[in-house]
Amino acid sequence: MLPDWEKLGKEYADTPNVMIGIIDCTAGGQGTCSQHQVQGYPTLKVVVDGKMSDYNGGRDFNSLKREVESKLSPRPACSLESKEACAPEARKILEESEKMSKGERAAKIKEVEQEIKDSKKQAAELEKKAKKLAEELDLIKAGGATVEKVEQLVNDGDWKAHCEGRTCVVAFLPHILDDFASGRNANLKMLDDAMKASKKDGKNIGFLWSQGGDQFEMEEKMGLQFGFPAVIAINFAKNKFGVHRGTFSTEQVGTFLTSLSRGGVPLAPIPAGLAASKADPWDGKDAPPPTDEEEL
After folding, report:
1. Quick one: which H or E segment has residue 195?
2. Is the CB of residue 244 less than 8 Å from the CB of residue 233?
């Protein structure tokens, strides 16, 4: 109960007619404890006007405080009985009130009570305004925040910046002429769902995609000739990459990442000189059919 007892002492430290004390019965206080027939520890006594009685109530702060309030009638540190304990400004107010008639004091009390009421109302309105401003501030900040998304791999600089200090997943998707916009959007949806699932799991993983064939040299060096979609995980800081050998779906990509974090994916050094080629950003549309010349 010592923490609650010390809290009680601080509560009434400036109260002139209340003292919260401790006697160590194992040291210098043995005689006092014996005199008052203390046989167990802690024993609590209440002294009012020189008369001592046992306290057998609760030992928590609230119970102890109720006992003080009901038995000791604590008065403010600054009061008519102890003006010396008042700060200069508080003493001035106290003495001005002392000189008032009952009618004047009642009117002054009503005036200050109304002022308190008005101040509380203003404080509530200011608090409401502050809360609204805080919400607006969050939205203003959010307007400048970059929302992470599955990005297209269009050049080497963006690739390295996107993957700096973390693992990145790169999905090589079928050519637009093979899969059309509908197929590509379905694949991107799977990647987006996999990215969101990884964020929920607390993983900081970047997600990128490339059109099959746009990064031909990279695909060759990483052994992705088995077809598209193909998925790799790469970490430039560790100079390692791994290839996903399962089917292409949100669940399977998630399983691949879990296995990767547990050391279950075979890793290889990143091929020397590996760099992303510049690629045209996808406009979100189907590609026009090839001309006769392109077909030849």
Report:
1. helix 176-200
2. yes
Residue 77 has what DSSP assignment? S
| Pick from 266, 271, 280, 194: nearest CA to 229 | 194
Q: Transcribe 5-65 into DSSP letters.
A: HHHHHHHTTT-TT-------TTTTTHHHHHHTT--SSS-EEEEETTEEEEE-S--SHHHHH
CATH of domain 2-75: 3.40.30.10
For 154-166, the pLDDT digits (tens) are 999 999 999 999 9
Strands 168-173 and 206-211: what pairing?
Answer: parallel
Distance CA 110, CA 107 (A): 5
Residues 6+ apart with CB under 8 A from 171: 187, 191, 207, 208, 209, 210, 229, 230, 231, 248, 253
CATH topology of domain 151-269: Glutaredoxin (3.40.30)
- pLDDT single digits (tens) 4-19: 999 999 988 878 789 9
**Any bridge partners for residue 230, and if so which?**
172
* Nearest alpha-carbon partner for 187 in 103, 247, 262: 247
3-state secondary structure of 88: helix
Region of 100 please: left (phi>0), alpha (psi -120 to 50) or beta.
Answer: beta
Answer yes or no: same fold for 2-75 and 151-269: yes
Range with lowest mean pLDDT among 128-132, 221-225, 241-245: 221-225
- For position 296, what pLDDT does the model report? 45
Q: Residue 260's CB: how many other CB atoms inside 10 A? A: 19
pLDDT band at 109 (very low <50, low <70, confident <90, very high): very high
**Residue ranges of domains in the chain:** 2-75, 86-118, 151-269
pTM of the model: 0.52
